């Protein structure tokens, strides 16, 4: 069961948005059973719609963990999964399309919503549910369900009772659920083909491209298929005018463990480790893009002042949505005061960027023409002169390990260059010598004995501290 409630006045307008009369029971036949929509409460102050899914026993799909008798004994009739997503699409198709003949103006209005899924299979637990729904503007309450309340020593089950509260357009909320329910379940009841990429891009329009867990969502929604995940990530980037720092970040080398974290996640963790070791509190994220690293920095209160810098206003707007800076009251005021987003070109000096403890250029320099790199060096190492500068960039030697990457090809069409380890070391040594910094270099990601690690990371430390 899934319920959607509102306290919008008049609350019964929820029926118009869902195109369902609250006084009636609405039934829908599905290939896997039957869906029923009813309204357990409906008055001016509060209205709730319930979607109840009954799965036919002969049509039960195998359990997601591959249990050998899963077709006959499984949790599909009792826990929300991709079957519920299909039921949502069938029962609320008009609402998901953002159409309402009787309340067209309300379709575009964000209204207070309360959503509950009392039994949801959640591979990753309550924490993952929060990571997926909180960036979309919801207050998330996900409680793990015990295996047996009479035997607490048995621990928790793989199910959560999920409750979401937020002021959201109903069509957006339905799309969020449609995509994220099978992602949390990490299983689908049907064969995943290239059509699923189109479904994902359509349902994720306006929110998925800037989501901090975009790679995980895409990989799980597309059943961990590399052949489908990479083009999906490319299309999402194009649909939101984003430049993906590294188009193979979410794709693993051919012999890698598919459950391993993506390179983007590993890289951010390495950068955060270096920042913590440096003792930095006031940090610049130069070329911050849609704000993945900014979100990680915000989660750690040791960073007291965080500034995200990018040249593209649209990308900064996406970062603001990800960090919930565009909604008054969405985050605590003390957190709002810790962060600022600044439009600036890194190849020009900007007095606003001076005097910080540390600056990060994560997968940025390869997007700059090599002829413009000296200007970037002057503005960052000369003018801004933070105490620590962290630079990451692809290791071109490692590219041969990526399946589907042609010989000599770069990891993204926007990359102006990709350096070998020797080339990056030479550049780093020249920059440090010319600007009175010391430098160390390390690899990030699973290293190959001959080719090195996929990412190169350099840590520059100013000899005399901040200017």
Automatic annotation (TrEMBL):
Entries under InterPro entries matching the protein: 3'-RNA_MeTfrase_Hen1_bac, Hen1, Hen1_N, Hen1_N_sf, SAM-dependent_MTases_sf
BP terms from Gene Ontology: regulatory ncRNA-mediated gene silencing; RNA methylation
Higher taxonomy: Bacteria, Bacillati, Actinomycetota, Actinomycetes, Micromonosporales
Native source organism of the sequence: Asanoa ishikariensis
UniProt-listed Enzyme Commission number(s): 2.1.1.386
Similarity section: Belongs to the methyltransferase superfamily. HEN1 family.
Protein name as it appears in the record: Small RNA 2'-O-methyltransferase
Cofactor(s) required for function per UniProt: Mg(2+)
Transmembrane stretches, start-end: none
A Gene Ontology molecular function term of the record: RNA binding
Pfam families (alphabetical): Hen1_L, Methyltransf_23
Catalytic activity, as annotated: small RNA 3'-end nucleotide + S-adenosyl-L-methionine = small RNA 3'-end 2'-O-methylnucleotide + S-adenosyl-L-homocysteine + H(+)
Boundaries of every Hen1 N-terminal domain copy: 1-237
Keywords, alphabetical: Magnesium, Metal-binding, Methyltransferase, RNA-binding, RNA-mediated gene silencing, S-adenosyl-L-methionine, Transferase
């Amino acid at each position: 069961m899934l319920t959607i409630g509102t306290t919008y006045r008049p609350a019964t307008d929820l029926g118009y948005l869902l195109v369902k009369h609250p006084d009636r029971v609405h039934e829908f036949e599905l290939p896997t059973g039957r869906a029923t929509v009813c309204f357990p409460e409906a008055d001016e102050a509060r209205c709730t719609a319930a979607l109840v899914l009954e799965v036919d026993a002969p049509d039960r799909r195998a359990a997601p963990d591959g249990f050998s008798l899963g077709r006959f004994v499984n949790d599909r009739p009792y826990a929300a999964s991709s079957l519920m997503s299909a039921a949502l699409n069938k029962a609320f198709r008009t609402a998901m399309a953002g159409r309402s003949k009787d309340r067209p103006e309300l379709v575009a209005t964000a209204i207070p919503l309360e959503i509950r899924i009392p039994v949801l299979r959640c591979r990753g637990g309550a924490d993952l549910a929060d990571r997926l729904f909180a960036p979309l503007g919801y207050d998330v309450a996900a409680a793990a369900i015990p295996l047996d309340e009479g035997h607490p020593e048995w621990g928790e089950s793989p199910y959560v009772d999920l409750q979401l509260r937020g002021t959201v357009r109903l069509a957006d909320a339905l799309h969020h659920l449609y995509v994220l329910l099978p992602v949390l379940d990490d299983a689908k009841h049907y064969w995943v083909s290239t059509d699923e990429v189109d479904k994902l891009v359509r349902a994720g329009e306006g929110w998925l491209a800037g989501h901090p867990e975009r790679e995980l969502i895409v990989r799980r929604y597309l059943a961990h298929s590399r052949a489908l995940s990479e083009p999906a990530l490319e299309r999402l980037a194009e649909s939101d005018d984003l430049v993906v720092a590294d188009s193979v970040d979410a794709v693993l080398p051919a012999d890698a463990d598919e459950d391993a974290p993506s390179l983007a996640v590993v890289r951010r963790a390495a950068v955060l480790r270096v920042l913590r070791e440096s003792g930095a509190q006031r940090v610049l994220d130069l070329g911050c893009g849609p704000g993945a690293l900014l979100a990680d920095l915000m989660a750690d209160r040791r960073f007291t002042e965080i500034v995200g810098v990018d040249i593209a206003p649209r990308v900064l707007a996406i970062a603001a949505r990800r960090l919930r800076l565009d909604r008054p009251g969405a985050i605590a005021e003390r957190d709002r005061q810790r962060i600022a987003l600044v439009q600036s070109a890194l190849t020009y000096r900007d007095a606003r960027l001076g005097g910080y403890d540390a600056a990060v250029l994560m997968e940025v320099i390869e997007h700059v023409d090599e002829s413009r790199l000296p200007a970037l060096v002057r503005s960052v190492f000369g003018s801004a002169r933070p105490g620590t500068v962290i630079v990451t960039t692809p290791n071109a030697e490692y590219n041969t390990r990526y399946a589907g990457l042609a010989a000599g090809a770069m990891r993204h069409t926007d990359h102006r260059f990709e350096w070998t380890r020797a080339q990056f070391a030479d550049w780093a040594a020249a920059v440090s010598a010319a600007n009175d910094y010391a430098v160390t270099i390390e690899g990030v990601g699973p290293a190959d004995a001959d080719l090195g690690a996929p990412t190169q990371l350099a840590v520059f430390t100013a000899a005399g501290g901040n200017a």
